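Subject: design request, 352 residues
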């Protein structure tokens, strides 16, 4: 299973990189500021976007590895956000029938979620993550210094996944994370940057409350790792991680929005459904909405209820006339529920 190293800085990274193998660093070409940590190794730069998260890019990476003499003992390190780690993990799992690999995730979303769990998917035509493997990296090095240059919208997209994890598993850390991210957003509103030197995107400063952020990321990683260890192939408990995602996917189908933003709205909608079904107090949805709003995330669906329902009916979680939902009952307590489409239709008018 994953060995995850959490740190504020890059200092311990060097000691994890194997000396005996030829090391190839696959890195997002947006991230020139991190090249200095990998100067000793072969660097393969790629441009990342959802359109390029495809088998064609895997083919390009394979060609590069072959041309540079990567053998079965080589070691790949993927440095970047979730697109990069997915591409690197997929390539490593199939190159010469599988070579060892590791990740240095550089977005909050990738540190909290995408790099953990061994899922390595690429898109196929318009279908997201349609082709993939479940193969675990040797290690993951997560450091909060990497997040200093992250644009605010990308940062917030990760906050939604962190808060989702704590709604599922940890009431105490939910409170801690919601309070910290609200303060961080207030700080950014005041000084124009997450960094204490006030210079936006500066790789040298320090993130406001960085030690708290590092602890929150550590706890998020522990929660996700626990689920993945107990249910590596998503047969049961791992499905809980889809909290907020059924609505998020329906919103993403109907408008251009970042995934994390759609998850934030999805979390509020899931809590409202839970209240409408009498499974949670109405105050839960209000609390989640307020907490997310304070972090700067959107909480209202830009898509009307009718359109959302149409998209939900086409969702792969629909089974006959029923749909699977993960619904929160309290912070730290959720349930995997089946709701009939008719019931959903009846309560959905008041949702958006
Ligand atoms: N494998 C999984 O289990 C899993 C889970 C969740 C999401 N995902 C995948 O993750 C992807 C989204 O990942 P993401 O949100 O990290 O997006 P991303 O990889 O597209 O990165 C977002 C943007 O931020 C830039 N960036 C990355 N790190 C930076 C940094 N430190 N400073 C400045 N800019 C930086 C990137 O160049 C990119 O433009 C999706 O493709 C999704 O399917 C996978």
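Subject: RE: design request

Done. Sequence follows.
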């Amino acid at each position: 299973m994953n060995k995850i190293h959490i740190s504020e800085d890059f200092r311990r990274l060097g000691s994890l990189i194997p000396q005996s193998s030829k090391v190839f660093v696959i890195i997002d070409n947006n991230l020139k500021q991190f090249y200095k940590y990998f100067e000793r190794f072969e660097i393969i730069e790629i441009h990342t976007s959802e359109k390029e998260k495809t088998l064609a890019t895997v083919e390009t990476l394979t060609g590069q590895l072959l041309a540079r003499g990567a053998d079965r003992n080589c070691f790949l390190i993927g440095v970047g956000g979730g697109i990069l780690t997915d591409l690197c993990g997929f390539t490593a799992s199939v190159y010469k029938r599988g070579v060892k690999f590791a990740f240095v995730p550089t977005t909050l979303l990738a540190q909290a979620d995408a790099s953990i769990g061994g899922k390595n998917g690429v898109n196929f035509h318009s279908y997201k993550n349609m082709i993939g493997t479940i193969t675990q990296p040797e290690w993951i090095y997560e450091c909060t210094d990497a997040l200093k240059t992250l644009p605010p919208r990308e940062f917030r997209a990760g906050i939604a996944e962190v808060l989702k994890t704590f709604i599922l598993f940890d009431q105490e850390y939910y409170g801690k994370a919601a309070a910290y991210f609200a303060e961080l957003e207030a700080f950014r509103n005041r000084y124009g940057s997450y960094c204490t030197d006030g210079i936006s995107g500066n790789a040298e400063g320090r993130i406001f409350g960085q030690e708290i952020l590092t602890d929150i990321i550590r706890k998020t990683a522990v929660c996700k790792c626990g689920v993945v260890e107990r249910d590596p192939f998503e047969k049961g408990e791992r499905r809980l991680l889809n909290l907020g995602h059924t609505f998020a996917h329906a919103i993403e189908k109907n408008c251009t929005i970042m995934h994390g933003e759609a998850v934030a709205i999805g979390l509020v909608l899931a809590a409202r459904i839970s209240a409408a079904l009498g499974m949670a107090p109405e105050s839960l949805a209000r609390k989640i909405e307020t907490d997310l709003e304070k972090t700067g995330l959107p909480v209202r669906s830009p898509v009307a209820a009718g359109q959302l329902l149409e998209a939900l009916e086409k969702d792969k979680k629909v089974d006959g006339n029923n749909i699977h939902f993960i619904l929160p009952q309290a912070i730290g307590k959720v349930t995997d529920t089946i709701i009939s489409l008719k019931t959903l239709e009846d309560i959905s008018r008041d949702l958006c």
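Residues 28, 30-31, 48, 50, 53, 80-84, 86, 106-107, 109-110, 113-114, 117, 119, 121, 128-129, 146-147, 149-150, 154, 157 surround nicotinamide-adenine-dinucleotide (CB under 6 Å).
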